[in-house]
Structure formats: C-alpha cells, structure tokens
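Renewal narrative, Specific Aim 1. Our central claim is that a sequence can be written position by position from structural information alone. The example that follows is taken directly from our test logs and has not been curated for this report. It begins with the structure tokens describing the chain, in the order in which they were read.
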C-alpha cells in the first residue's frame, strides 16, 4: 500500500510538471500567433496607404517583404482544422526542427473534439517528446518523425512514428520499457490512462530502426 501511494505521488508530480511544460509551450505559440495578427492589421493599413497614393510598386515590394518574413517565421505551420491541435503540434514540430529533425505531418480534423484540451495536450506532448528524444540518439541525417491524424468515422485516429537507434524488445504490462531513466515511464502510463478513460485503443510497435504509436479515440 505504501509503495502504491508513493508511485501515485510520483506520477501526480510528474503529470503536474508535464502539464505545466506543455501549456507553457502552447501559451508561447498562442502569443506568437496573436502578435502576428496584430501586425497583420498594421500591414494592411500600410498597403492601403500605398494603394490610395497609387504607388503600386511599393505595394508589391511590401508584399514581397512580407512573404520572406512569413517564410522565415514558420514555413511549415500545420493546419489541421482544429485550433488546439494546431497549437500543440506546431509547438512540438518547431522544437523538433530546432533539433535538426525532419518532420512530415498530415492532419485533417476540422471538428470540435470532445476530448479535453489537457488530455489532448498530454497525449500529443508525450508522443512528440518521446519521438524527439529517440531521434536525438541518431545522426542528423537519420532523424525523422512522421505524424498522421484524421477522423475515421466518429473516431480520432493518431499515428506517430520516429526513427530510433534500435528495436525495443522488452515489454512491461503491455508497454515497451523506457530507456530514458526515471520519470519518462510515467508519461506512457498517463497516455494509457487517458486512452482507457475515453474507451479508446492504443497500439505500439517497435521494429529495427523505427518506433510507432497508434491511437483511436471515440468522439
């Protein structure tokens, strides 16, 4: 009983740190998007003045400059159709790309999900964090993460695959054992608990050089 309570406390503490980290990332992304929206109004006003003065060349030059700025700011911004998914995924994709990881992503949701934002944040955050950490054991040329999300009827389907240094051969309670040390296993437990609570389905597969997780969640 004592050991069980101790484990519960450690999991709870880990969850609190995880949620804080993920929401800080989401908040940062939201502020960046809000800032661009504010700038967008100023850009429109500037081009309106050029247009009123009949200075078409200045409008074209300004549009060219804006295009370069957008390319530098985030050429691979993902648009899933769901704002919360956009924010979480783009923050994690930016983190992966900052670590020289190639990310390919395809996601089309376009509905309001019934799963809470906190649960969604924990699932995507954990899967992306684990994928990024696994890729960091590889050379830059080998680092790849593939993301696929879509609605299959009334269910949300998620697939996250990453290259890895080797095959995970050991499973404990249906999960591949983590090799990252204390704390990392709690994230997998949390993901499993959320999927179970939503009566969903989760599958993990480890092959030589690749690791994948698939999740189905009723909506």
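The sequence written for that structure reads:
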């Amino acid at each position: 009983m004592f050991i069980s309570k101790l484990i519960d406390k450690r999991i709870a503490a880990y969850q609190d740190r995880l949620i804080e980290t993920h929401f800080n990332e989401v908040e940062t992304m939201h502020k960046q998007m809000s800032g661009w929206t504010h700038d967008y109004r100023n850009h429109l006003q500037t081009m309106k003045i050029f247009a009123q003065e009949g200075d078409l060349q200045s409008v074209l030059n300004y549009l060219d400059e804006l295009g370069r700025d957008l390319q530098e700011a985030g050429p691979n911004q993902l648009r899933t159709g769901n704002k919360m998914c956009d924010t979480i995924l783009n923050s994690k994709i930016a983190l992966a790309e900052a670590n020289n990881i190639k990310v390919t992503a395809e996601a089309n949701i376009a509905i309001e999900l019934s799963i809470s934002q906190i649960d969604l944040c924990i699932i995507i955050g954990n899967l992306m964090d684990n994928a990024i950490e696994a890729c960091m054991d590889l050379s830059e040329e080998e680092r790849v993460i593939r993301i696929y999300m879509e609605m299959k009827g009334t269910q949300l389907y998620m697939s996250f695959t990453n290259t890895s240094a080797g095959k995970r051969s050991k499973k404990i309670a249906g999960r591949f054992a983590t090799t990252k040390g204390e704390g990392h296993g709690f994230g997998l437990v949390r993901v499993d608990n959320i999927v179970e609570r939503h009566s969903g389905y989760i599958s993990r597969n480890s092959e030589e050089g690749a690791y994948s997780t698939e999740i189905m969640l009723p909506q």
